[in-house]
User: Which sequence fits this backbone?
């Protein structure tokens, strides 16, 4: 075992701290790229998966990864760290713990907004306890002793800081989860749409935190502060920048705009791509590796969308696709002779491909099999109602002022009820939004009330006569139809009186329209006083024509007697003297009566009453006639 100086301890520990800082970067990126209703859930996953990884990697994972190798497949002493560790073992443990946390937390962003919190904890256990330690042993086993004891390491597989061991592992598990869970509601399909994150500035801050953390990720993997570190850090910076720049140009070309989320992921893809080869490539090659990573990330995102695989934050294109490229770039971009004495570029490429395929088959195969099996008895995905509510509330009972406001606004939108103002706690970030929204609701209420008043006015004009206040022909026809249905149901009779004022046109022409209008109002008031409220309806059919509907009058003989009596009283009341504009005047009218029962048609009833009224006019006006099935019914009633 090599001897490490205090400076080496300090450098590796400081680098580990930077890698742990990447958890904060992942938290910002993932919570910023999802909707507000799920941001707390995503942030909390990033916290708890580091807790899970720390405990399990300490108990068993570190030993499975770095214990004495069993046939190059796994460490034989899982609890190696639970025994008394020396200083270097503790240093390496902390550094690798940060790596384990990174591999574990990659899954969080991919499955955001739909995976149960408990199911995510299960995936975190799977990654930190088995998948990452075993895949890590294959590539990095024997690191404590300065040897290669894992089967891939012995073959010459090179993955300096974990493009495959860390990032592709997280990407493979993410892909397995996505295939099991399916896309978020509303993401794809006929009405599918992109789902935008609620806080892109915070997500951008997260990218910067990850970028800074990556300097420890790659630089600390030397496990010593030596001459390689400056070049590694420079290559890391160049690759990240190239990935972001190329992603910007490509998205601008393909989408018509420099899409913010795609550019951020381009930066991260460049960092993932350089991770395996940062100690070997030249600065120019680092730029190339980062640029290709950016292209792969953008095109990979479009591919997933075409396949309707819903990766909420682009974890698969960033960590899996760029991780594969970065691992292969060890053989494709490093100078000749970088891989060991006598190893050709083609031989190294074959070894790198073998490493990518074997780790991918293990990570994807194990995670998919276990999670698919669990999903058969215990669904990994939240219910549709919980997904619509948001995982902040559904999974944790946690909310915020902004989320409360959004929930209230969403409830109003779904119910179509905007009569109630939203409530929000004063002096919060959502208070000002609520003030403006309530102002909009108030104005909406005013406009709605105006519209309702206008509609009521239109209905009033359509159904009621503006001169007399009586129902119009349309409203009266509906009343006749209801009376016919009532007669059918109750087996009783009714009557309709058709009233026409005699010589009204001559009066209107002689005395003027104002006089005629006043006459009509007097006639309407006198008739209305005689119509029984419980069983009668008075309407103005037009001009000087009125009609009275009498319903539920009992037997036909009773209906006939009541109608004739009302006609006599009506003619007498109308003929009483009145004063109009200083003129003494008497109103005369002709009345037609039509009896009906449940077998009659509403239009036919009105027609019969109208015919009877004309008979009364032909008989000399000022009287009434009753329509009946026999000819003598047209004769003047006795």
Assistant:
């Amino acid at each position: 075992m090599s001897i490490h100086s205090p400076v080496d301890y300090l450098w590796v520990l400081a680098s580990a701290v930077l890698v742990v800082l990447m958890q904060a970067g992942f938290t910002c990126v993932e919570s910023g790229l999802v909707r507000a209703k799920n941001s707390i859930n995503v942030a909390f996953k990033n916290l708890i998966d580091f807790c899970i990884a720390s405990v399990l990697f300490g108990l068993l994972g570190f030993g499975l990864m770095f214990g004495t190798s069993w046939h190059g497949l796994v460490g034989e002493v899982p609890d190696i760290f639970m025994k008394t560790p020396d200083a270097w073992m503790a240093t390496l443990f902390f550094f690798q713990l940060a790596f384990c946390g990174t591999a574990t937390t990659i899954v969080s962003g991919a499955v955001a907004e739909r995976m149960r919190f408990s199911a995510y904890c299960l995936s975190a256990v799977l990654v930190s306890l088995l998948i990452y330690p075993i895949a890590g042993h294959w590539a990095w086993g024997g690191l404590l002793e300065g040897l290669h004891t894992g089967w891939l390491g012995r073959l010459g597989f090179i993955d300096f800081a974990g493009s495959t061991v860390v990032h592709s592992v997280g990407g493979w598990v993410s892909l397995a989860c996505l295939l099991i869970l399916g896309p978020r509601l509303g993401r794809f399909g006929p009405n599918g749409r992109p789902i935008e994150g609620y806080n892109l500035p915070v997500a951008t801050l997260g990218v910067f935190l990850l970028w800074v953390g990556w300097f420890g990720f790659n630089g600390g993997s030397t496990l010593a502060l030596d001459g390689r570190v400056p070049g590694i850090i420079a290559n890391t910076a160049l690759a990240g920048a190239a990935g972001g720049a190329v992603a910007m140009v490509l998205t601008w070309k393909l989408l018509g705009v420099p899409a913010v989320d795609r550019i951020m992921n381009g930066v991260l893809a460049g960092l993932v791509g350089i991770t395996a080869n940062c100690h070997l490539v030249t600065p120019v090659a680092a730029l190339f590796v980062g640029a290709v990573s950016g292209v792969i990330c953008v095109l990979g995102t479009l591919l997933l969308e075409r396949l309707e695989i819903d990766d909420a934050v682009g974890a698969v294109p960033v960590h899996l696709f760029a991780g594969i490229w970065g691992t292969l770039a060890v053989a494709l971009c490093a100078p000749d002779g970088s891989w060991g004495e006598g190893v050709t570029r083609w031989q190294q490429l074959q070894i790198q491909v073998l490493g990518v395929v074997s780790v991918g088959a293990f990570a994807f195969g194990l995670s998919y099999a276990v999670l698919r099996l669990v999903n058969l008895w215990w669904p990994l995905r939240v219910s549709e109602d919980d997904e619509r509510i948001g995982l902040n509330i559904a999974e944790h009972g946690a909310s915020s002022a902004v989320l409360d406001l959004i929930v209230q606004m969403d409830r109003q939108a779904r119910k179509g009820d905007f009569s109630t103002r939203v409530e929000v706690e004063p002096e919060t970030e959502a208070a000002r939004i609520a003030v403006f929204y309530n102002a909009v609701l108030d104005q909406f209420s005013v406009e709605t009330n105006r519209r309702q008043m206008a509609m009521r006015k239109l209905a009033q004009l359509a159904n009621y006569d503006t001169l007399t206040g009586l129902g119009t022909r349309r409203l009266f026809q509906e009343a006749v139809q209801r009376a016919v249905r009532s007669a059918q149901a109750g087996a009783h009779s009714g009557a309709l009186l058709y009233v026409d004022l005699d010589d009204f046109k001559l009066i209107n022409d002689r005395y003027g329209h104002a006089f005629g209008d006043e006459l009509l109002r007097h006639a309407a008031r006198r008739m209305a006083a005689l119509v029984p409220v419980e069983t009668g309806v008075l309407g103005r059919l037009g001009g000087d024509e009125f009609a009275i509907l009498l319903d539920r009058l009992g037997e036909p003989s009773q209906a006939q007697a009541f109608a004739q009596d009302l006609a006599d009283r009506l003619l007498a009341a109308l003929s009483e003297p009145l004063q109009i504009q200083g003129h003494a005047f008497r109103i005369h009218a002709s009345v037609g009566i039509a009896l009906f029962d449940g077998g009659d048609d509403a239009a036919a009833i009105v027609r019969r009453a109208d015919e009877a009224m004309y008979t009364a006019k032909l008989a000399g006006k000022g009287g009434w006639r009753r329509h009946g099935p026999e000819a003598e019914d047209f004769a003047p009633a006795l």
